[in-house]
């Protein structure tokens, strides 16, 4: 059993910064890729950034140069540093683990956190 819990969201003025955290807990042996998604009201959920256990990253074009994804494999935690925030970044942000290998040796799929609200005022 695995849970993902996000934290760090809030209200910030345009140009400000926030750092989101997502901690995975439970019977975890390893997690390969972890990512951040976001969903604004009335819009589809979109990928923001992903990172593999070896440190390979990918970003949506809209956040390149402003956001940085990182992770601490030992703590099973992924971070999203968000700088130069814009009103269009306003959304609920979710962390995601596509595949988790549990301590029992099984692979489990498609874990999502509960989401954390980020609101950027103009």
Kindly describe this structure.
The protein is mostly beta strands. It is built from no helices and twelve strands. The strands form two sheets. Strands 2, 4, 5, 6, 7, 10, 11 and 12 form an eight-stranded mixed sheet that branches. The protein is elongated and about 50 Å long. The N and C termini lie far apart (41 Å).
Instruction: Give the SSE string.
Output: EEEEEEEEEEEE
Runs with pLDDT <50, length 5+?
none
Q: Could you tell me the mean pLDDT?
A: 95
* Straight-line distance between termini: 41 Å
The largest sheet, given as strand count, sense and whether it forms a barrel, is: 8 strands, mixed
Number of strands: 12
Number of helices: 0
Q: Using only CA atoms, what is the Rg? A: 14 Å
Helix content: under 10%
Describe, in short, the structure shown.
This protein is about 0% helix and about 60% strand. It has strands at about 1-5, 10-15, 20-25, 30, 35-40, 45-50, 55-60, 65-70, 75-80, 90-100, 105-110, 115-120.
